[in-house]
Write a structure and sequence with these properties.
This protein is mainly β. The chain has 2 helices and 37 strands. The strands form 7 sheets. Strands 26, 28, 29, 30, 31, 32 and 36 form a 7-stranded mixed sheet that branches. Strands 9, 10, 11, 12, 13 and 14 form a 6-stranded antiparallel sheet that branches. The longest helix is centred in the middle third of the chain and has 7 residues. The two termini are about 20 Å apart. GO terms for molecular function: beta-fructofuranosidase activity. This is Beta-fructofuranosidase, insoluble isoenzyme 1-like. One of its GO terms (biological process) is carbohydrate metabolic process.
Length: about 525
């Protein structure tokens, strides 16, 4: 998983948890790759190994911060000789090296933050990127828990060396368990531009995200940071907890964002682990992937964030096919030919029928989207939907991963369900094949629903309604591989759906050195 991505002197640096001894959990190091465009990467030597009393049993996740004078610093969690989790720092050995190949862990001040008697030292990890307050203090958060209450402990420092725990956490919530990989950053009330992590003011809100160890999903709220009292208060527009908003309703965890000062955007990067067995991982020789880096910004409704893959991904687009104004009736499949369906970028806009009267009635008890998708999969006929894409499909549909919408009638507004259902994705045994799903908060006045799916052999990463709802699925087809993979648009609803536009591209592979 990623630890501390950053943009520094024209290069993107990607630090990530890595076991040099195999594709299984072990004593982790901080590996390091660099890129000029977030797409083509060069792997360098790992920068942090377990080597000191304060990290001898592991170098876990953390973050990078750019200090005044353009000097990067890394905070990370070390597992010390007592197997306690402590926070350490590392700095470049040579600031003039554009690749920042070597880092040092000063003995003098490490560990820089340790748990006091009020903090659970065995659940105390993943320091955030620091932000600078108007009072002249730097601040970081460290994830923790007290019994079953998730906590983001706040620490302050004037010199980035001597840190003092604040009297109260920035935020906490009962019955949420351990908070891993907290992230806290401002978002503008208008436009897509990202903001520096330290920015405060009237024309922004803050996003607070945690990775919940119990559920293995990333949850976030949008709210207000009260700088005078160092408290974050979520808006009352979404649930603060297990039933709240997620960055991604699929296989996406331990995400980290950073401010890209070069292009004035905030980049979000998440980790997707494997859904096959450890034995499979050992045979492959690798385990875990990064999702495509995403831009993240506040929706115009102020209630959630939107996400979209970084524009640089489009440089990998190859052969293009286009379809427009194609009606898809109940039970029909339309093959999207002329591209490499196992490695593709597909953007489609569906036009709904003029009347949605024949949409299914929504039951108020259907609060869990994944359960609902399991109940009403792509083969279960509805009124308006299910319709969408059959990705990584074999020629006779023995295998396929459907990504689709289903529209329901409800008293106040229509409810839109988005699914990425892996249950039919593979004939292989022993796989985790969930029916991932999320609801989409979208206005259907224009009768349009858009879907984008990035397909890459064992991953289908999908963005519904312009990035309102995102779902990443890990799948392992045995038949729908390489040139034997197919891509279809489909409709299993009684109401005909029109494909207003499909733009699909074969995707080239990036350069990996």
């Amino acid at each position: 998983m990623q630890t501390g991505p950053m943009y520094f002197n024209g290069l993107y640096h990607f630090f990530y948890q890595y076991n040099p001894k195999g594709a299984v959990w072990g004593k982790l190091v901080w590996a390091h790759s660099v890129s000029k465009d977030l797409i083509n990467w060069e792997a360098l030597e790992p920068i942090i190994y377990p080597s000191k009393p304060f990290d001898i049993n592991g170098c876990w996740s953390g973050s990078a911060t750019i200090l005044p004078g353009n000097k990067p610093i890394i905070f990370y969690t070390g597992i010390d000789t007592q197997n306690q989790q402590v926070q350490n720092y590392a700095i470049p050995k040579n600031y003039s090296d554009p690749y920042l190949r070597e880092w040092v862990k000063p003995n003098k001040n490490n560990p820089i933050v340790v748990a006091d008697e009020s903090v659970n030292g065995s659940a105390f990890r993943d320091p955030t990127t620091a932000w600078f307050g108007k009072d002249g203090h730097w601040r970081i958060l460290v994830g923790s828990r007290r019994k079953n209450r998730g906590i983001a402990h706040l620490y302050k420092s004037k010199d980035f060396v001597n840190w003092v725990k604040a009297e109260h956490p920035l935020h906490s919530k009962a019955k949420t368990g351990m908070w891993e990989c907290p992230d806290f950053y401002p978002v503008s009330l208008s436009g897509k531009n990202g903001l520096d992590t330290s920015l405060v003011g009237p024309n922004l809100k803050h996003v607070f995200k945690v990775s919940l160890d119990v559920t293995r999903y990333d949850y976030y709220t949008v709210g207000k940071y009260h700088t005078q009292i160092d408290r974050y208060v979520p808006d009352n527009t979404s649930v603060d907890g297990w039933d709240g908003l997620r960055y991604d309703y699929g296989n996406f965890y331990a995400s980290k964002s950073f401010f890209d000062a070069g292009k004035k955007r905030r980049i979000l990067w998440g980790w997707a682990n494997e859904s096959d067995s450890t034995k499979n991982d050992v045979e492959k020789g690798w385990a875990g992937i990064q999702a495509i880096p995403r831009m993240v910004w506040l929706d115009s409704n102020g209630k959630q964030v939107l996400q979209w893959s970084v524009e640089e991904l489009e440089t990998l687009r190859g052969n293009k096919v286009h379809i427009s104004n194609q009606q898809v009736k109940k039970g029909e499949h339309v093959e999207i030919k002329g591209i490499t369906a196992a490695q593709a970028d597909v953007e489609v806009t569906f036009l709904l029928p003029k009347s949605l009267d024949n949409a299914e009635e929504f039951d108020a008890s259907w609060v869990n989207a994944q359960d609902l998708c399991g109940l009403k999969g792509s083969k279960v006929q509805g009124g308006v939907g299910p319709f969408g894409l059959l990705t990584l499909a074999s020629s006779h549909l023995e295998e396929y991963t459907p990504v689709f919408f289903r529209v329901f009638k409800a008293p106040k507004k229509h409810v839109v369900l988005m699914c990425s259902d892996a249950r039919s994705s593979s004939l292989m045994d022993g796989l985790y094949k969930p029916s991932f799903a999320g609801f989409v908060d979208v206005d259907l006045t224009d009768r349009k629903l858009s879907l984008r799916s990035l397909i890459d052999h064992s991953v289908v990463e999908s963005f519904g309604a312009g990035g309102k709802t995102c779902i990443l699925s890990r799948v392992y087809p045995t038949l729908a591989v390489f040139n034997d993979a197919h891509l279809y648009a489909f409709n299993n609803g009684t109401e005909s759906i029109t494909i207003e536009n499909v733009n699909a591209w074969s995707m080239n592979s990036p350069r990996m050195n």
